[in-house]
């Protein structure tokens, strides 16, 4: 147990103030360091800063740095770290802060960049999957911060459905500050630990609807994950057995700027509109940190590129309905197949393509991808 004491600074006086720690994360630099986020439980407008000391379990006192009286330290808004969203690169953290606003309800602030080194469509549209990545980051962040899930637990998608307002994709040029209103339901607990939940998200910009997202995921302890994955759960073994990524298809075909961002490889012995998945383990975004299987965001990107490859005119993805059925392994070819689905006529030329990923003769992932003409 860590005991914290705090007092406020206001000129020559120190008005009474209570300070509590609501997050503390082990530092990635040293196992003895802590990254602590503080907030005042009895804020005083006269207080210009907060200084705290803490007592370690061994009985020693150390002084924390003085914190200014800013919204991030003196309100219920809580900053987000790279560790909480399961990223190594802090520049890829899209969430800025969050608030608990009710029973299983949260408000999350995020940035939707106009430009990104990977999530950037060839048609110069704002990227819908970058908004989905904001939601993806919200899953581990809320699991750790709001539902007391220890680090080391893994969150696995079961399904995901999203629809983006097409007009928002045309708002390019500047970053957008997005608000995610999140409601969690079907919350499953196994003992004292979170087992999984369904999350409904309404994304908005300055009160203007931007997207709706609904997803279900499960929360796996290290023991459960290892039991599910067996020998495939060892990262070093999985990487050593990984097939080399095949030659990418044309970046123009799939709406990418660079060949290195293409996730489809030709499948010459299969019918048209079939490809193989490319697992480029050195990709800085899709493989931000070592993993033992193809990440969920890679599968979504695969569905996007496969759907665009079927389009006969310039298009952008505005929605998906997906199912995550099995893990996609590195050591066997993963076939990507597509088929058009009936779509009602619409002004924006919306079309729906069904994308299926199969490996070793079993379906791993399916997505009904909606594209709109640009």
Automatic annotation (TrEMBL):
Domain A-factor biosynthesis hotdog: 85-215, 253-369
Name under which the protein is recorded: AfsA/ScbA
GO molecular function: transferase activity
Pfam families associated with the record: AfsA
């Amino acid at each position: 147990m860590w005991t914290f004491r705090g007092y406020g600074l206001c000129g020559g006086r120190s008005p009474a103030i209570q300070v509590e720690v609501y997050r503390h994360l082990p530092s990635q630099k040293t196992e003895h360091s802590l990254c602590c986020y503080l907030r005042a439980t009895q804020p005083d407008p006269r207080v210009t800063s907060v200084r705290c000391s803490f007592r370690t379990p061994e009985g020693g006192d150390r002084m924390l740095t003085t914190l200014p009286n800013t919204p991030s330290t003196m309100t219920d808004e809580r900053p987000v770290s790279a560790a909480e969203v399961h990223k190594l690169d802090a520049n890829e953290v899209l969430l800025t802060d969050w608030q608990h606003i009710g029973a299983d309800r949260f408000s999350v602030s995020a940035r939707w960049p106009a430009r990104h080194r990977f999530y950037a469509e060839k048609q110069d549209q704002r990227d819908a999957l970058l908004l989905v990545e904001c939601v993806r980051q919200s899953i581990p962040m809320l699991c750790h911060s709001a539902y007391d899930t220890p680090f080391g637990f893994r969150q696995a998608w079961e399904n995901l459905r999203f629809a983006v307002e097409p007009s928002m994709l045309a708002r390019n040029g500047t970053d957008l500050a997005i608000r995610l209103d999140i409601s969690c339901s079907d919350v499953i607990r196994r003992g004292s630990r979170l087992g999984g939940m369904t999350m409904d998200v309404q994304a908005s910009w300055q009160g203007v609807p931007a997207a709706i997202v609904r997803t279900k995921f499960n929360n796996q302890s290290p023991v459960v994950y290892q039991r599910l994955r067996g020998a495939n759960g060892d990262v070093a073994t999985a990487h050593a057995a990984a097939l080399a990524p095949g030659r990418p298809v044309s970046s123009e075909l799939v709406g990418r700027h660079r060949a290195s961002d293409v996730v489809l490889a030709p499948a010459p012995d299969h019918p048209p509109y079939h490809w193989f998945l490319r697992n480029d383990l050195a990709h800085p975004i899709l493989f931000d940190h070592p993993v033992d299987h193809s990440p969920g965001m890679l599968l979504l990107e695969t569905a996007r590129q496969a759907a665009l490859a079927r389009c006969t005119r310039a298009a952008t993805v505005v929605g998906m309905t997906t199912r995550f059925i099995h893990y996609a392994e590195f050591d066997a070819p993963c076939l990507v197949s597509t088929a058009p689905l009936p779509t009602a006529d619409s002004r924006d030329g919306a079309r729906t393509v069904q994308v299926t990923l199969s490996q070793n003769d079993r379906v791993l992932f399916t997505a009904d991808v909606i594209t709109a003409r640009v």
